[in-house]
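Handout, section 4.2: multi-component inputs.
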Amino acid sequence: MKDDAQIGDEATNSSRRNFLKLGGIAAATATVGAGAGAGFVLGRDPDANIGWGRTEAGKDMYFNREAFEVDFPPTMEVVGQIERPEWGDYLFNRAFSLVKSIKGGWVPSEDWTQIPDLRVREYYAKYPKRWEEMLLSFSEKVKHDNNIEKHRDRFALAWAYSGAYSKGLHADFPPEPTEHPDVADFKWVQREPKEFKSPKHASKLIKQMAFKFGMSMVGITKLDSNFVFKNMMRGMPEWGDEIPKHWKNIIVFGVPMNWDPMYAAVGYSTSYDAYYRAKMASGLMAAYLGELGYAARPQFPGNSYEVIMPPLAMLAGLGESTRNGILMTPEVGPNIRLAAVITNLDLEHDKPIDLNMKHFCESCKICADACPSGSISKADKPDDVVRGVRKYAFNQDGCWRFWNQGPTPSGLGCRVCIAVCPYTRKNNWIHALVKQAEPRDPTGVTRNALLAMQHNFFYYPDAESFHPEWSGGNFASYHQPPEWMRSEEYLKVEKTWEYDGNWEGF
Amino acid sequence: MFPQSTLLDPLFWMVLGAIQVLVFTGANQWAKESQLGMNWWKWSVVGFWWLSFILTIAGAFTLLGENEGNAGWYVLGFVGTLLVIGGAAILKVLVLLKPNHP
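Output:
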């Protein structure tokens, strides 16, 4: 016979066991719910918006590049004599020259040999097929101008956002140089040069300042003359191929475009937000160097450069070259807008990096499939040689043609290839994990698994859908616009449209 | 769970960590009553499965949260299904390896 105490103990033990069993089930259920809830809000977390969150502490540039440093960037494969870029190689130079000629009475035709500006003519002599695209851009711009205002109800808030940054972008800081660089670059200098303890100290400080001036990424390299334009020098009506002697080093920095508008390209996005911030930082950095007694030559968007930025950014260890021809960083992918300051200050240089992006781009092709103008090569390997460097063929005139169709007031820009790139992902835990794992996997298994998911699980609108309605599309975007850009949420407008793009899925 | 919240976010993670004690104590009780004869490697397999399961759910919902609706549901459906099947297989193995299994 059990006494009362034994019965009591058994009842207590049974109760304890039941508590543990049922409590365990309840705790497991709560954990599943907490995992889902925490995951969802981490996806929403604004702290993942690199460049628009924890910039000042330098924590946007979270990827430790040291393990991946190499002597020469693997995506800058030199296969011949590197040639410096010509004035006519720069798209905006050609476009502005052609517009000037048209305003002067010239009527463009299919015959590129009639182009008045010799420098533009020389470019199309090299790429005659691209003239068709440039020619089309004029008629597309007319269509754009005839249709754009009909869609203001839908895009009013996006245009206002872009317009605000555009006004800031076009302010006169930093001022454009108006004299010889031997004079203009030293106008920043306020005092005698203060000597640094070492180039290493100088670089460390300058990088911190780039972050404090609002930049997310920064790298430093020697100014490689191969990437300095010939026949171009702001402030000088005539220029040959000389490079000012005081142009020793270049500090390259950048910031991503605001994430949610960028994902909603074409119509809800422009580059002006990042352009504005990068431009201001270049001015601030030039002024800072000047205060310490050093010459400075800011290079900034939209159009104020003497150098080609992406290869210099690669040499400065910021990232690698991509299929779509722009810089791809480990942190923000190609969602980066660059500016720079050339200086005579002695600085320690960063090294280029090898993150296997070459192989990633070979397998991916998502940008090429999504490109609304078909300007990005779909070849398996780099299929062109540009000025001595092997790269993927890219039709910049075709890209420009689509810019002129975009449903933004200026009709300038597209950004679809940036939005859809699998590397253009916010800094949340899943993407950070993947970005850390992929470059460390020599077998390519991680890359192939990730790309299989990208190709099969993610939704990408058709290339044609990105077009405006007046040229056969439906204003699709990779993501639907954020709530603060939806005019129907705030303005007295009648919503007559449906969004085509990724959304939260509920 | 509460980004940008000074108090709630760290508290949430502490509580979530604490309730994992209850999850595994409860699992231990179930295992004892089922006489599964758990040892270190069996617990490692179960722990790894549990971590994978929770991370898959969290990952899928992170995708949903960042407006990758398609990808979120596909990851949940595809990887989640594989994990449920994997979990059933682990349970079957644990039952087969019971010390006094006939």
